Amino acid sequence: MQLCLQNNLISLMQQNSEGNLCQNNQLLQITLTMHRVIIPSEDFSTYLDALEKKSSGLCVKICYFVRYWITEFWIMFKMDSSLINTMEEFQKLVRANGEELHCRLIDTTQINSRDWSRKLTQRIKPNTSKKRKVSLLFDHLEPEELSDHLTYLEFKSFRRISFSDYQNYIVNSCVKENPTMERSIALCNGISQWVQLMVLSRPTPQLRAEVFIKFIHVAQKLHQLQNFNTLMAVIGGLCHSSISRLKETSSYVPHEVNKVFNEMTELLSSYRNYDNYRRAYNECTNFKIPILGVHLKDLISLYEAMPNYLEDQKINVHKLQSLYNHINELIQLQELAPPLEANKDLVHLLTLSLDLYYTEDEIYELSYAREPRSHRAAPLTPSKPPVVADWASGIAPKPDPKTISKHVQRMVDSVFKNYDHDQDGYISQEEFEKIAASFPFSFCVMDKDRCVSVNLIFTSVSACELRNR
Fold first, then answer.
1. Would you give the end-to-end CA distance of the chain in angstroms?
2. Which of 113, 239, 242, 428 has a Cα at 20 to 30 A from 198?
3. Contact criterion met (CB below 8 Å) for 171 and 36
4. Helices (H), 240-306
5. Residue pLDDT, tens place only, 219-229
6. What is the 3-state secondary structure (H, E, C) of 54-71?
7. How far is CA 326 from CA 44, 182, 331, 359, in A?
Protein backbone atom coordinates (compact mmCIF):
# COMPACT_ATOMS: atom_id res chain seq x y z
CA MET A 1 0.00 0.00 0.00
CA GLN A 2 3.02 2.26 0.52
CA LEU A 3 1.60 4.84 2.91
CA CYS A 4 4.58 7.14 2.51
CA LEU A 5 2.64 8.25 -0.54
CA GLN A 6 0.28 10.07 1.79
CA ASN A 7 2.77 12.83 2.55
CA ASN A 8 2.35 13.95 -1.07
CA LEU A 9 -1.30 13.11 -1.57
CA ILE A 10 -3.29 13.94 1.54
CA SER A 11 -3.05 17.60 0.65
CA LEU A 12 -4.88 16.77 -2.59
CA MET A 13 -7.84 15.37 -0.64
CA GLN A 14 -10.36 18.10 0.06
CA GLN A 15 -12.68 16.26 2.46
CA ASN A 16 -15.91 17.21 4.14
CA SER A 17 -16.70 16.37 7.75
CA GLU A 18 -17.58 12.77 6.78
CA GLY A 19 -14.31 12.22 4.94
CA ASN A 20 -15.81 12.33 1.45
CA LEU A 21 -14.03 14.08 -1.38
CA CYS A 22 -15.57 17.46 -2.13
CA GLN A 23 -14.57 17.21 -5.79
CA ASN A 24 -13.09 14.74 -8.21
CA ASN A 25 -9.33 15.18 -8.43
CA GLN A 26 -7.81 13.74 -11.60
CA LEU A 27 -4.27 14.17 -10.30
CA LEU A 28 -5.15 12.12 -7.22
CA GLN A 29 -6.68 9.38 -9.35
CA ILE A 30 -3.65 9.18 -11.63
CA THR A 31 -1.25 9.08 -8.69
CA LEU A 32 -3.19 6.37 -6.88
CA THR A 33 -3.41 4.32 -10.07
CA MET A 34 0.30 4.63 -10.80
CA HIS A 35 1.69 4.66 -7.24
CA ARG A 36 3.50 1.32 -7.32
CA VAL A 37 5.50 2.32 -10.38
CA ILE A 38 7.71 4.47 -8.16
CA ILE A 39 6.94 3.36 -4.58
CA PRO A 40 7.43 -0.38 -4.16
CA SER A 41 8.04 -0.49 -0.38
CA GLU A 42 5.76 -0.42 2.67
CA ASP A 43 5.85 2.58 4.93
CA PHE A 44 3.36 3.23 7.73
CA SER A 45 5.43 6.05 9.24
CA THR A 46 2.99 8.85 8.39
CA TYR A 47 0.21 7.26 10.43
CA LEU A 48 2.55 6.27 13.26
CA ASP A 49 3.98 9.79 13.46
CA ALA A 50 0.46 11.22 13.67
CA LEU A 51 -0.37 8.78 16.49
CA GLU A 52 2.80 9.69 18.37
CA LYS A 53 2.01 13.38 18.06
CA LYS A 54 -1.60 12.65 19.10
CA SER A 55 -2.83 14.26 15.91
CA SER A 56 -6.16 12.48 15.73
CA GLY A 57 -7.38 14.70 12.89
CA LEU A 58 -4.50 13.65 10.65
CA CYS A 59 -4.99 9.98 11.58
CA VAL A 60 -8.66 10.14 10.59
CA LYS A 61 -7.78 11.96 7.38
CA ILE A 62 -5.28 9.25 6.49
CA CYS A 63 -7.87 6.54 7.09
CA TYR A 64 -10.49 8.35 5.03
CA PHE A 65 -7.89 8.66 2.33
CA VAL A 66 -7.32 4.88 2.42
CA ARG A 67 -11.07 4.27 2.44
CA TYR A 68 -11.40 6.37 -0.71
CA TRP A 69 -8.62 4.34 -2.29
CA ILE A 70 -10.31 1.03 -1.42
CA THR A 71 -13.76 2.20 -2.51
CA GLU A 72 -12.87 3.90 -5.78
CA PHE A 73 -9.97 1.67 -6.87
CA TRP A 74 -11.17 -1.70 -5.60
CA ILE A 75 -10.18 -3.41 -8.87
CA MET A 76 -6.53 -2.61 -8.05
CA PHE A 77 -6.90 -4.56 -4.82
CA LYS A 78 -8.68 -7.42 -6.61
CA MET A 79 -5.83 -7.72 -9.08
CA ASP A 80 -2.92 -7.20 -6.68
CA SER A 81 -2.90 -9.59 -3.73
CA SER A 82 0.19 -7.88 -2.29
CA LEU A 83 -1.87 -4.70 -1.90
CA ILE A 84 -4.48 -6.61 0.09
CA ASN A 85 -1.78 -8.22 2.23
CA THR A 86 -0.16 -4.88 2.97
CA MET A 87 -3.53 -3.39 3.90
CA GLU A 88 -4.12 -6.27 6.31
CA GLU A 89 -0.77 -5.51 7.93
CA PHE A 90 -1.82 -1.90 8.28
CA GLN A 91 -5.09 -2.99 9.90
CA LYS A 92 -3.19 -5.08 12.43
CA LEU A 93 -0.99 -2.11 13.25
CA VAL A 94 -4.01 0.19 13.70
CA ARG A 95 -5.86 -2.36 15.84
CA ALA A 96 -2.75 -2.93 17.97
CA ASN A 97 -2.81 0.76 18.79
CA GLY A 98 -6.43 0.52 19.93
CA GLU A 99 -7.91 2.49 17.05
CA GLU A 100 -10.92 0.31 16.19
CA LEU A 101 -12.78 3.14 14.44
CA HIS A 102 -9.81 3.70 12.14
CA CYS A 103 -9.62 -0.03 11.52
CA ARG A 104 -13.21 -0.13 10.26
CA LEU A 105 -12.48 2.67 7.80
CA ILE A 106 -9.70 0.70 6.13
CA ASP A 107 -11.55 -2.64 6.04
CA THR A 108 -11.01 -4.46 2.73
CA THR A 109 -13.61 -7.21 3.15
CA GLN A 110 -16.09 -5.16 1.12
CA ILE A 111 -13.95 -5.75 -1.96
CA ASN A 112 -14.99 -9.41 -2.17
CA SER A 113 -18.65 -8.39 -2.50
CA ARG A 114 -18.01 -6.12 -5.49
CA ASP A 115 -19.23 -7.22 -8.91
CA TRP A 116 -16.27 -8.83 -10.67
CA SER A 117 -17.27 -7.93 -14.22
CA ARG A 118 -13.99 -6.67 -15.58
CA LYS A 119 -14.00 -5.68 -19.24
CA LEU A 120 -10.95 -7.76 -19.93
CA THR A 121 -12.73 -10.97 -18.95
CA GLN A 122 -15.62 -10.34 -21.30
CA ARG A 123 -15.39 -12.57 -24.32
CA ILE A 124 -15.72 -11.53 -27.91
CA LYS A 125 -17.69 -14.34 -29.44
CA PRO A 126 -17.16 -15.61 -32.97
CA ASN A 127 -20.19 -15.58 -35.19
CA THR A 128 -21.96 -18.95 -35.13
CA SER A 129 -24.54 -18.18 -37.80
CA LYS A 130 -24.61 -20.29 -40.95
CA LYS A 131 -24.04 -17.18 -43.07
CA ARG A 132 -20.37 -17.10 -42.02
CA LYS A 133 -19.40 -20.40 -43.65
CA VAL A 134 -15.74 -20.78 -44.51
CA SER A 135 -13.56 -23.61 -45.69
CA LEU A 136 -11.13 -25.26 -43.30
CA LEU A 137 -8.72 -25.91 -46.17
CA PHE A 138 -5.83 -23.46 -46.32
CA ASP A 139 -5.71 -23.42 -50.11
CA HIS A 140 -9.40 -22.50 -50.28
CA LEU A 141 -9.19 -19.69 -47.73
CA GLU A 142 -9.17 -16.16 -49.08
CA PRO A 143 -6.50 -13.78 -47.70
CA GLU A 144 -9.29 -11.64 -46.25
CA GLU A 145 -10.67 -14.62 -44.31
CA LEU A 146 -7.24 -15.43 -42.88
CA SER A 147 -6.53 -11.82 -41.96
CA ASP A 148 -9.95 -11.48 -40.31
CA HIS A 149 -9.48 -14.57 -38.17
CA LEU A 150 -5.89 -13.72 -37.22
CA THR A 151 -7.11 -10.26 -36.22
CA TYR A 152 -9.90 -11.81 -34.17
CA LEU A 153 -7.35 -13.91 -32.24
CA GLU A 154 -4.95 -10.96 -31.89
CA PHE A 155 -7.61 -8.62 -30.54
CA LYS A 156 -8.88 -11.29 -28.15
CA SER A 157 -5.37 -11.54 -26.71
CA PHE A 158 -4.66 -7.79 -26.78
CA ARG A 159 -7.82 -6.78 -24.92
CA ARG A 160 -6.97 -9.10 -22.01
CA ILE A 161 -3.87 -7.06 -21.12
CA SER A 162 -4.86 -4.99 -18.11
CA PHE A 163 -3.60 -1.69 -16.76
CA SER A 164 -1.88 -3.64 -14.00
CA ASP A 165 -0.09 -5.85 -16.56
CA TYR A 166 1.46 -2.78 -18.18
CA GLN A 167 2.54 -1.50 -14.76
CA ASN A 168 4.14 -4.84 -13.94
CA TYR A 169 6.08 -4.71 -17.17
CA ILE A 170 7.34 -1.21 -16.36
CA VAL A 171 8.46 -2.17 -12.86
CA ASN A 172 10.06 -5.51 -13.82
CA SER A 173 11.25 -4.61 -17.35
CA CYS A 174 10.19 -8.10 -18.43
CA VAL A 175 7.14 -10.34 -18.71
CA LYS A 176 8.12 -12.65 -15.87
CA GLU A 177 5.06 -13.63 -13.84
CA ASN A 178 2.89 -11.70 -16.28
CA PRO A 179 0.91 -14.52 -17.95
CA THR A 180 -1.44 -12.30 -19.95
CA MET A 181 1.44 -10.55 -21.65
CA GLU A 182 3.28 -13.85 -22.10
CA ARG A 183 0.26 -15.23 -23.96
CA SER A 184 0.29 -12.18 -26.22
CA ILE A 185 3.96 -12.80 -26.99
CA ALA A 186 3.30 -16.49 -27.60
CA LEU A 187 0.57 -15.64 -30.11
CA CYS A 188 2.83 -13.22 -32.01
CA ASN A 189 5.71 -15.72 -32.08
CA GLY A 190 3.31 -18.54 -32.95
CA ILE A 191 1.97 -16.65 -35.97
CA SER A 192 5.50 -15.91 -37.17
CA GLN A 193 6.51 -19.58 -36.87
CA TRP A 194 3.28 -20.79 -38.43
CA VAL A 195 3.92 -18.59 -41.49
CA GLN A 196 7.39 -20.09 -41.88
CA LEU A 197 6.15 -23.65 -41.45
CA MET A 198 3.28 -23.22 -43.89
CA VAL A 199 5.73 -22.05 -46.57
CA LEU A 200 8.15 -24.88 -45.77
CA SER A 201 5.40 -27.50 -45.74
CA ARG A 202 5.09 -27.37 -49.53
CA PRO A 203 7.37 -29.82 -51.39
CA THR A 204 8.16 -27.80 -54.53
CA PRO A 205 9.52 -24.24 -55.03
CA GLN A 206 6.46 -23.23 -57.02
CA LEU A 207 4.04 -24.40 -54.32
CA ARG A 208 6.11 -22.68 -51.63
CA ALA A 209 6.01 -19.47 -53.68
CA GLU A 210 2.21 -19.71 -53.84
CA VAL A 211 2.01 -19.83 -50.05
CA PHE A 212 4.49 -16.93 -49.80
CA ILE A 213 2.36 -14.87 -52.18
CA LYS A 214 -0.78 -15.72 -50.24
CA PHE A 215 0.75 -14.44 -47.01
CA ILE A 216 1.76 -11.20 -48.74
CA HIS A 217 -1.90 -10.72 -49.63
CA VAL A 218 -2.83 -11.56 -46.02
CA ALA A 219 -0.37 -8.88 -44.91
CA GLN A 220 -2.03 -6.33 -47.19
CA LYS A 221 -5.40 -7.12 -45.62
CA LEU A 222 -3.91 -6.86 -42.11
CA HIS A 223 -2.56 -3.44 -43.06
CA GLN A 224 -6.02 -2.40 -44.21
CA LEU A 225 -7.46 -3.62 -40.90
CA GLN A 226 -4.76 -1.55 -39.12
CA ASN A 227 -3.63 -4.67 -37.24
CA PHE A 228 0.06 -3.80 -37.03
CA ASN A 229 1.01 -6.43 -34.46
CA THR A 230 -0.09 -9.40 -36.57
CA LEU A 231 1.26 -7.66 -39.67
CA MET A 232 4.65 -7.55 -37.97
CA ALA A 233 4.38 -11.26 -37.10
CA VAL A 234 3.48 -12.30 -40.66
CA ILE A 235 6.12 -10.14 -42.36
CA GLY A 236 8.62 -11.19 -39.70
CA GLY A 237 7.98 -14.83 -40.56
CA LEU A 238 8.48 -14.17 -44.27
CA CYS A 239 11.65 -12.17 -43.55
CA HIS A 240 13.14 -14.98 -41.48
CA SER A 241 16.33 -16.36 -42.99
CA SER A 242 14.85 -19.87 -43.06
CA ILE A 243 12.57 -18.47 -45.78
CA SER A 244 14.74 -15.77 -47.35
CA ARG A 245 17.46 -18.36 -48.14
CA LEU A 246 15.08 -20.26 -50.44
CA LYS A 247 16.39 -18.93 -53.76
CA GLU A 248 14.51 -21.43 -55.91
CA THR A 249 11.28 -20.48 -54.17
CA SER A 250 11.88 -16.75 -54.53
CA SER A 251 12.44 -17.16 -58.29
CA TYR A 252 8.71 -17.96 -58.62
CA VAL A 253 7.59 -14.84 -56.71
CA PRO A 254 6.49 -12.09 -59.16
CA HIS A 255 8.22 -8.70 -59.11
CA GLU A 256 5.06 -6.85 -58.06
CA VAL A 257 4.66 -9.16 -55.03
CA ASN A 258 8.28 -8.58 -54.00
CA LYS A 259 7.64 -4.85 -54.32
CA VAL A 260 4.75 -5.07 -51.83
CA PHE A 261 6.89 -7.24 -49.55
CA ASN A 262 9.67 -4.65 -49.55
CA GLU A 263 7.17 -1.86 -48.83
CA MET A 264 5.81 -3.78 -45.85
CA THR A 265 9.31 -4.48 -44.56
CA GLU A 266 10.16 -0.80 -44.87
CA LEU A 267 6.98 0.15 -43.02
CA LEU A 268 7.91 -2.08 -40.07
CA SER A 269 11.63 -1.37 -40.07
CA SER A 270 13.25 -0.43 -36.77
CA TYR A 271 15.17 2.35 -38.58
CA ARG A 272 15.02 5.65 -36.67
CA ASN A 273 13.09 4.06 -33.83
CA TYR A 274 10.30 2.68 -36.05
CA ASP A 275 9.65 6.09 -37.57
CA ASN A 276 7.70 4.79 -40.58
CA TYR A 277 5.46 2.65 -38.40
CA ARG A 278 4.85 5.45 -35.91
CA ARG A 279 3.76 7.88 -38.60
CA ALA A 280 1.41 5.31 -40.17
CA TYR A 281 0.03 4.32 -36.75
CA ASN A 282 -0.63 7.92 -35.69
CA GLU A 283 -2.55 8.57 -38.90
CA CYS A 284 -4.91 5.66 -38.18
CA THR A 285 -8.30 6.26 -36.61
CA ASN A 286 -10.93 3.93 -35.14
CA PHE A 287 -9.94 0.26 -34.67
CA LYS A 288 -6.23 -0.49 -34.66
CA ILE A 289 -3.83 -2.89 -32.94
CA PRO A 290 -0.35 -1.48 -32.27
CA ILE A 291 2.97 -3.27 -32.42
CA LEU A 292 2.92 -3.94 -28.72
CA GLY A 293 6.67 -4.35 -28.31
CA VAL A 294 7.37 -0.88 -29.69
CA HIS A 295 4.99 0.78 -27.23
CA LEU A 296 6.26 -1.26 -24.30
CA LYS A 297 9.77 -0.07 -25.11
CA ASP A 298 8.44 3.48 -25.06
CA LEU A 299 7.09 2.90 -21.55
CA ILE A 300 10.44 1.59 -20.35
CA SER A 301 12.31 4.49 -21.95
CA LEU A 302 9.99 7.01 -20.32
CA TYR A 303 10.23 5.27 -16.95
CA GLU A 304 14.04 5.25 -17.02
CA ALA A 305 14.45 8.77 -18.43
CA MET A 306 12.56 10.62 -15.68
CA PRO A 307 13.40 10.60 -11.95
CA ASN A 308 10.88 9.27 -9.43
CA TYR A 309 11.30 12.25 -7.10
CA LEU A 310 12.05 15.94 -7.50
CA GLU A 311 13.62 18.28 -4.96
CA ASP A 312 12.49 17.92 -1.35
CA GLN A 313 11.49 14.32 -2.12
CA LYS A 314 8.34 15.39 -3.92
CA ILE A 315 6.84 12.76 -6.20
CA ASN A 316 7.48 13.44 -9.88
CA VAL A 317 3.81 13.68 -10.78
CA HIS A 318 4.65 14.56 -14.39
CA LYS A 319 6.32 11.16 -14.74
CA LEU A 320 3.27 9.37 -13.34
CA GLN A 321 0.95 11.34 -15.58
CA SER A 322 3.03 10.62 -18.69
CA LEU A 323 3.13 6.88 -17.96
CA TYR A 324 -0.58 6.90 -17.16
CA ASN A 325 -1.42 8.59 -20.46
CA HIS A 326 0.69 6.11 -22.45
CA ILE A 327 -0.94 3.09 -20.79
CA ASN A 328 -4.41 4.56 -20.95
CA GLU A 329 -4.08 5.08 -24.69
CA LEU A 330 -3.38 1.36 -25.11
CA ILE A 331 -6.26 0.43 -22.80
CA GLN A 332 -8.71 2.62 -24.70
CA LEU A 333 -7.90 0.74 -27.92
CA GLN A 334 -9.47 -2.33 -26.31
CA GLU A 335 -12.88 -0.65 -26.44
CA LEU A 336 -12.99 -0.63 -30.26
CA ALA A 337 -14.04 -4.03 -31.59
CA PRO A 338 -12.61 -5.16 -34.95
CA PRO A 339 -14.87 -4.58 -37.98
CA LEU A 340 -15.15 -8.27 -38.85
CA GLU A 341 -16.89 -11.55 -38.15
CA ALA A 342 -15.18 -14.82 -37.29
CA ASN A 343 -16.13 -18.44 -37.87
CA LYS A 344 -15.57 -20.39 -34.68
CA ASP A 345 -14.52 -23.57 -36.52
CA LEU A 346 -11.69 -21.82 -38.32
CA VAL A 347 -10.80 -20.08 -35.04
CA HIS A 348 -10.41 -23.50 -33.40
CA LEU A 349 -8.17 -24.80 -36.18
CA LEU A 350 -6.00 -21.67 -36.22
CA THR A 351 -5.74 -21.69 -32.43
CA LEU A 352 -4.29 -25.19 -32.47
CA SER A 353 -1.96 -24.33 -35.36
CA LEU A 354 -0.55 -21.35 -33.47
CA ASP A 355 -0.15 -23.27 -30.21
CA LEU A 356 2.60 -25.50 -31.52
CA TYR A 357 6.24 -24.60 -30.98
CA TYR A 358 9.36 -25.51 -32.91
CA THR A 359 12.95 -24.59 -32.23
CA GLU A 360 15.06 -22.55 -34.64
CA ASP A 361 17.08 -25.68 -35.39
CA GLU A 362 13.98 -27.67 -36.34
CA ILE A 363 12.79 -24.96 -38.70
CA TYR A 364 16.21 -24.65 -40.33
CA GLU A 365 16.40 -28.41 -40.66
CA LEU A 366 13.20 -28.34 -42.69
CA SER A 367 14.42 -25.34 -44.71
CA TYR A 368 17.63 -27.15 -45.67
CA ALA A 369 15.64 -30.27 -46.50
CA ARG A 370 13.57 -28.27 -48.97
CA GLU A 371 16.52 -26.50 -50.56
CA PRO A 372 19.89 -27.96 -49.54
CA ARG A 373 22.79 -25.60 -48.90
CA SER A 374 24.83 -24.87 -51.97
CA HIS A 375 28.44 -26.07 -51.77
CA ARG A 376 29.53 -22.73 -53.17
CA ALA A 377 27.64 -20.72 -50.58
CA ALA A 378 28.96 -19.95 -47.13
CA PRO A 379 27.06 -21.57 -44.25
CA LEU A 380 24.09 -19.45 -43.28
CA THR A 381 24.04 -18.09 -39.76
CA PRO A 382 20.53 -18.27 -38.35
CA SER A 383 19.13 -14.80 -37.95
CA LYS A 384 15.91 -13.29 -36.78
CA PRO A 385 13.86 -11.07 -39.07
CA PRO A 386 14.94 -7.41 -38.96
CA VAL A 387 11.43 -6.08 -38.38
CA VAL A 388 10.58 -8.00 -35.23
CA ALA A 389 11.12 -6.08 -32.02
CA ASP A 390 13.39 -7.81 -29.49
CA TRP A 391 11.23 -6.88 -26.49
CA ALA A 392 10.26 -10.53 -25.99
CA SER A 393 13.54 -12.29 -26.61
CA GLY A 394 13.74 -15.67 -24.94
CA ILE A 395 9.97 -16.01 -24.66
CA ALA A 396 8.47 -18.89 -26.57
CA PRO A 397 5.12 -20.63 -26.40
CA LYS A 398 5.36 -23.84 -24.41
CA PRO A 399 2.91 -26.54 -25.51
CA ASP A 400 0.77 -27.47 -22.56
CA PRO A 401 -0.76 -30.96 -23.02
CA LYS A 402 -4.06 -30.01 -21.38
CA THR A 403 -4.40 -26.85 -23.45
CA ILE A 404 -3.50 -28.61 -26.67
CA SER A 405 -5.92 -31.43 -25.85
CA LYS A 406 -8.69 -28.88 -25.31
CA HIS A 407 -7.92 -27.16 -28.60
CA VAL A 408 -7.73 -30.51 -30.41
CA GLN A 409 -11.14 -31.47 -29.03
CA ARG A 410 -12.62 -28.22 -30.31
CA MET A 411 -10.95 -28.68 -33.67
CA VAL A 412 -12.27 -32.25 -33.96
CA ASP A 413 -15.79 -30.99 -33.23
CA SER A 414 -15.39 -28.36 -35.93
CA VAL A 415 -14.03 -30.84 -38.49
CA PHE A 416 -16.86 -33.30 -37.93
CA LYS A 417 -19.44 -30.52 -38.07
CA ASN A 418 -18.15 -29.34 -41.45
CA TYR A 419 -17.19 -32.66 -43.08
CA ASP A 420 -19.43 -35.33 -41.54
CA HIS A 421 -22.23 -34.47 -43.96
CA ASP A 422 -24.42 -37.49 -43.25
CA GLN A 423 -23.74 -37.20 -39.48
CA ASP A 424 -22.81 -40.87 -39.11
CA GLY A 425 -19.75 -40.17 -36.97
CA TYR A 426 -17.24 -40.64 -39.78
CA ILE A 427 -15.26 -38.53 -42.19
CA SER A 428 -13.45 -39.96 -45.17
CA GLN A 429 -9.73 -40.61 -45.22
CA GLU A 430 -9.51 -38.28 -48.22
CA GLU A 431 -11.13 -35.39 -46.34
CA PHE A 432 -8.94 -35.99 -43.31
CA GLU A 433 -5.82 -35.91 -45.46
CA LYS A 434 -6.96 -32.68 -47.12
CA ILE A 435 -7.33 -30.97 -43.77
CA ALA A 436 -4.06 -32.41 -42.46
CA ALA A 437 -2.29 -31.23 -45.61
CA SER A 438 -3.76 -27.75 -45.25
CA PHE A 439 -2.48 -27.31 -41.69
CA PRO A 440 0.23 -30.00 -41.54
CA PHE A 441 1.93 -28.90 -38.35
CA SER A 442 -1.34 -28.98 -36.45
CA PHE A 443 -1.47 -32.72 -36.96
CA CYS A 444 2.06 -33.98 -36.47
CA VAL A 445 5.42 -32.95 -35.06
CA MET A 446 8.78 -33.06 -36.80
CA ASP A 447 10.96 -34.42 -34.06
CA LYS A 448 10.76 -38.18 -33.60
CA ASP A 449 11.89 -37.84 -29.99
CA ARG A 450 8.69 -35.94 -29.29
CA CYS A 451 6.74 -38.96 -30.42
CA VAL A 452 3.40 -38.13 -28.78
CA SER A 453 2.17 -36.33 -31.87
CA VAL A 454 -0.87 -34.22 -32.29
CA ASN A 455 -1.86 -36.69 -34.98
CA LEU A 456 -2.17 -39.37 -32.28
CA ILE A 457 -4.12 -37.00 -30.07
CA PHE A 458 -6.38 -36.21 -33.01
CA THR A 459 -6.88 -39.92 -33.71
CA SER A 460 -7.66 -40.74 -30.09
CA VAL A 461 -10.09 -37.87 -29.77
CA SER A 462 -11.68 -38.87 -33.06
CA ALA A 463 -12.13 -42.40 -31.73
CA CYS A 464 -13.87 -41.01 -28.66
CA GLU A 465 -16.05 -38.94 -30.96
CA LEU A 466 -16.98 -42.02 -32.96
CA ARG A 467 -17.79 -44.03 -29.85
CA ASN A 468 -19.98 -41.25 -28.46
CA ARG A 469 -21.95 -40.71 -31.65
1. 56
2. 428
3. yes
4. 241-244, 247-250, 255-267, 271-283, 292-305
5. 999 999 999 99
6. CCHHHHHHHHHHHHHHHH
7. 30, 20, 9, 34
